[in-house]
Each structure stands twice: as structure tokens, then as C-alpha cells.
Amino acid sequence: MAVTDHVGYAEFMEGVQKRNPGQPEFVQAVGEVAEDIFDFIADKEIYHEYQILRRLVEPDRVVSFRVCWEDDNNNIRVQRGWRVQNNNAIGPYKGGIRFHPTVNRSVLKFLAFEQTFKNSLTGLPLGGAKGGSNFNPKGKSEHEIMRFCQSFMTELYRHVGEDTDIPAGDIGVGAREIGYMFGQYKRITNKFSGVLTGKGLEFGGSRVRTEATGYGCVYFAQNMLERRGQSMDGKMCVVSGSGNVATHAVEKIIHLGGKAVTLSDSEGFIFDRYGIDQEKLEWVKEHKTHRRGRISEYAKVFKGSEFHAGKRPWSVPCQIAFPCATQNEICGDDARTLIGNGCECVSEGANMPTALKGIRSFKDAGLLYGPGKAANAGGVALSGLEMSQNAARLSWDEDQLQQKLRELMQGIHDRCVERGGIAGSDRIDYVRGSNIAGFVKVADAMLAYGVV
Ligand code: NDP
Ligand code: 2IT
């Protein structure tokens, strides 16, 4: 094959911009990864020759479909659904489903792209995908949620399967929604298979899957700290979000002796000067998951806490920050505020919560900075273990799975260290480490397949 002219990073990104108009989140995610990959493959002609990066930024397919459902007042409602199957070089497509009004093609393409690197980094045989809908679950009745999930699966079922594509939860999709979708899949196909992960324990779900993302992202912080001879003990922690990832991050912070003082949702954040203990956390879980309440209520229930409407928690001084809500929730100014207040470590439970300017600030300040594709990979890793259990028709016990989660997070951390060393320093660039480690496995599998 002829030696190709190398396209530089700037020219490559210009092409990505041009081919993906109106998709800022996708372009942002590609830009962050491509910078490191260009550097890494500068002297590796084969990756250029086979256009590996150019192929990785073009999803294998994007399926877009209509989702019709009937609300409680018998109005016909129409939503848009998608499944973005980014890459299946190292395993079947795998990634969550998000129900949120901000969901669009750009958001799902960024998430599916990130997922490809994240899943590779886990060391498990999982490709990358993401799906979802612009459906807003807020304020919907139980039956409306059920009808929507069933209608969503009525189309999605033809694109997924236990060896093809295995969706799971994400924002707005938890155990309840997975149950409705699994029930509909089973009904349509007459198959009981591990087509979704995050299932209830009664029908093939795995222990520890619910906790895995939040716990994993605190383990990742702990791993980064331990490498510097430090621990979580006594550390002041600021957490955003109050959903699955945030609440389980707080739980693990408590287990490891840290002090979590904030939680948030789309309306603002609460600050609890006494710290969020297990009892208060149980209230939050019940309030957010079962009563679908707002986090502002926390300040009315617990003395010593206050609610800050319309604000994010990054102005609260802390040593460790755990962004666990959504993308781009830490902008450049927020990052500078965190650094100015003495923050030493950031571990991302959410996907791409830090904007590019924020990442640059964290790197320049030498923070221990664990990007989402590494720090929040515990969730999908446990999903991988749920798939293994389903395939074997077994269910592993709690202790075994808790131990496996710790090992998986340590493995992910160590792969970042292996690829992310900074010359002339003992510091690690976890962004570069995760991007390169995630890339190499996928790229080498793609080389083995030839031009497909
Ligand atoms: P949940 O739906 O359980 O919770 C989401 C939380 O984030 C809620 O508190 C929500 O507030 C808040 N939030 C969502 N969107 C916004 C927004 N646009 N602005 C401000 N706050 C917002 O989702 P998860 O906890 O599962 O997911 C949180 C993050 O973690 C996401 O980035 C997700 O992609 C990522 N993640 C999740 C994994 C999982 O296993 N669940 C695995 C890996 C990553 P409100 O209630 O007001 O909407
Ligand atoms: O972003 C993610 O990694 C998830 N939402 C979990 C995906 C999964 O398949 O468990």
C-alpha cells in the first residue's frame, strides 16, 4: 500500500468539523482524543496508512427512529430515538441509553465515541455504542414511563442482541426503565437473553452493577492518590449530581473516610457543612430515585445545610472534586476556582464533564486528573461481568464482585500510568494515558481485519 501523506491534527479536526456540522459535543470529544493520538502515531506509519483514526470518528452506523407513545390524557406524543454503534472491533457494541431532553445526535455520537475508548480500557471485550431519546422523564407517571420504554424497545429490538449490541442505563434510565425495556424485548423476541445490563437481580442482573460507576470513580481517585502516597482519609470532597453515580460516589467516599459536602441537580446544589453521612444519603436515594424529588428539599430536612439555586458546587473549597452529573459542567472558570481553592484531585463520574479549557487548567496545575473514560469505567466493566454471568447462566456473589470491581479499577489506572508518563517527571497525564491505552487495542484489532 502507498505511503500516505500525513494529515496534521489541525487539518484532521477541520475535516471532522466540516463533516459534522452542528455537533459541538462530538467535535469536542474527538478533539480531546485526537490530539493525543496524533502525537502517539507520529512515527507509526501503519495507523496512518490504514486511516484508523479517520475510521474511528465515523460511527459504524447511526440508527434514528420515531418513538410514538400515548400520555395519560390520551394525547399521542412523538419522540426521536437513536442508537449510535460506534465500533465493534474488540467486542459487541456496548453502552448506555440516555433519556433527557438535551439528547441529540451530537451528544450520542460523543458518548459512543468515548465509550469505544473507555470499554477498551477496561480490558474486557466490549465495543462502543450509545443510545437514547429526547424524551423527558421528569413529571411523567409510572405508566407513561412504561409505555415510552416499550415503544422505544419496539424499534430498538431489531438493532440489539446479546452478541450484537447490549445497551444499559445512563441519565434518566435506571433499573425501572431497564425492566420495562427488557420485558418488551423478551415479549417481542420470545428470548430470555442478556440483551441489556443493569437488570434487576431477579432476571439476570448482577450484584454491584448499581453501585459500580460511583464506587469505581472513587476507587480511581484513591488509586491516583495512593500512587502519590496519599489516601482518601479525611479529604474534603465536592460531588455534583444526585443520581445513580453521584449517590454511590458519596457512599464510597464515606466508606473510605472522606467527607462529602455537596450534591446537585439541574436546579442547584446543596452544601452540608457537617458532611453527608450514610443516613442522609439513604434519604437522598429514596427522595431522588423513588419519589423523583428535587435536591433542594435536602436543605429543608437537614440542619447545617443550604441550597444554592441555579449554581454548581465548584466554588466550595475541597481537596477532591467528583463531577457526576453531565457533560461540560466544569468550564474553564470553574476549573480555575477549584484549583485556586486548593483542589488536588478530580475524578470524573460523568462523561466529559470538563470542557477543554478546564482540562488544560487541570493539566497545567499538575492536578491528579482522572478523565471520565477511565474514572467512570467501573460501570461498564461491571456490565461486562453481568454479560459473563448471563452467558454462563450463573450469578456471582457480592464479595467476589466487589473485589473484581477494585481489581478492574486498578487495572484501568495502571494502563493509564503505563501510557501516560510525563517525560522528566513522575507525574502522569491520565488523559493521554487513557486515550492511548484505549486506542491501541481497538486500532490493532482494526488492522487485523484489513479495510472494512
Ligand atoms: P441519573 O439520571 O441517575 O442522574 C443524573 C444527575 O445529573 C441528576 O442529578 C440530574 O439532575 C443531573 N443532571 C442531568 N443532566 C443535567 C444537566 N443538563 N444539568 C445539570 N444537572 C444535570 O444519571 P447517572 O447518575 O446514571 O449519570 C450521571 C453521569 O454519569 C452522566 O454523565 C452519565 O453519562 C455518566 N455515567 C453513568 C454511568 C452509569 O452506570 N449510570 C456509567 C458511566 C458514566 P436532574 O434530576 O435535575 O435532572
Ligand atoms: O457511560 C457509561 O459507561 C454507561 N452509561 C454505562 C454503560 C454500560 O453499558 O454499562
Keywords:
Rossmann fold; 452 residues; five-stranded mixed β-sheet; alpha/beta; binds NADPH dihydro-nicotinamide-adenine-dinucleotide phosphate; 48% helix; binds (2Z)-2-iminopentanedioic acid; globular; five-stranded parallel β-sheet
Q: Please, could you describe this protein's structure?
A:
β8 (about 260-265) and β9 form a beta hairpin. The mean pLDDT is about 95. The protein has helices at about 10-20, 25-40, 45-50, 50-55, 105-120, 140-155, 175-190, 210-225, 245-255, 280-290, 295-300, 330-340, 355-365, 370-375, 375-390, 400-420, 430-450; strands spanning about 60-70, 75-85, 95-100, 130-135, 165-170, 235-240, 260, 260-265, 270, 305-310, 320, 345, 370. Strands 1-2-4-3-5 form a five-stranded mixed beta sheet. Strands 7-6-11-12-13 form a five-stranded parallel beta sheet, with helices on both faces. It is globular, with a radius of gyration of 21 Å. With about 450 residues, the protein is an alpha/beta fold. It has three domains: about 5-55, no CATH class; about 60-195, Rossmann fold (3-Layer(aba) Sandwich), CATH 3.40.50.10860; about 210-375, NAD(P)-binding Rossmann-like Domain (Rossmann fold). α2 runs parallel beside α5 (about 105-120), α2 (about 25-40) crosses α17 and α15 packs across α16 (about 400-420). Helices cover about 50% and strands about 15% of the residues. The site of NADPH dihydro-nicotinamide-adenine-dinucleotide phosphate has 23 residues, from α9.
